[in-house]
Amino acid sequence: MLNPMLYRSLGSVEAFLVRHPRLWRLLNRRAHGEPSTAVTETHPTPAYQAVVVGYGPIGQTIARVLRERGIEPTIIEMNIETFRSLRDQGQRAVYGDANQTSVLEQAGVARARTIILSASGSAGAAEAIRAARRINPKIHVVARADYLGQSASLLKAGADAVVSGEGEVVLAMTDSILRQLGATPDQLDEERARIRAELSGREE
After folding, report:
1. How many other β-carbons are positioned within 10 Å of the β-carbon of residue 179?
2. What total of structural domains would you count in the chain?
């Protein structure tokens, strides 16, 4: 009678244990008689450390680009299945909410040079930025904003750079039109700079 109930509870129990790495390691030692081989412990610490928050399409692309340049990123992911998949692949991954100081610390923010917040949602991102700054005031923070209006709050929270989906759409469409009209590379660069200045002015 108890088996079905216990089976259904395994996911939530594992998620709880992952959020408490010391307890996870202790239970693994008792179960296997040897130290746990958590993903975050199976890699040597790289010279340049980066943390990527979110492993959706944008986070995956950023992580791939980093790896291609010899930088092994640590992924912070709230989806337990995605976290398990990363762990099974031997990649650096931490399960939890990037707004929580303990999760950022486990991901190595204190030693990292860069943190990239690739997931959408400015409210949570602002808190994650402030928490990262408290842990490591010198860390370079790049954040994603879905809309231009969100950029100002993320910059105020401490982001060094904010990439807006709306802004990038404007730049890409303008660039395509000007190329079709025969604009030179210098003219394209000049127009991009002007558009960025205009968009920045609207955000203030």
Report:
1. 13
2. 3
Q: How far apart are CA 146 and CA 75, in angstroms?
A: 21
The model's pLDDT over 51-105, given as tens digits with 9 standing for 90+, comes to 999 999 999 999 999 999 888 899 999 999 999 999 999 999 999 999 999 999 9
Assign residue 115 a region: left if phi > 0, alpha if psi is -120 to 50, beta otherwise?
A: beta
Instruction: Find the domain containing 27 and state its range.
Output: 1-36
DSSP 26-55: HHHHHHHSS----GGGSSPPPSS-EEEE--
**Percent of the chain, pLDDT > 90?**
44
Check whether residue 7 and residue 107 sit in a common domain. Answer: no
Any idea how long the chain is?
A: 204
Please indicate, yes or no, whether residues 89 and 158 belong to a single structural domain of this protein: yes
pTM of the entire predicted model: 0.68
CB-based contact 165:154 (threshold 8 Å): no
> In this structure, are strands 50-53 and 114-117 parallel, antiparallel, or unpaired?
parallel
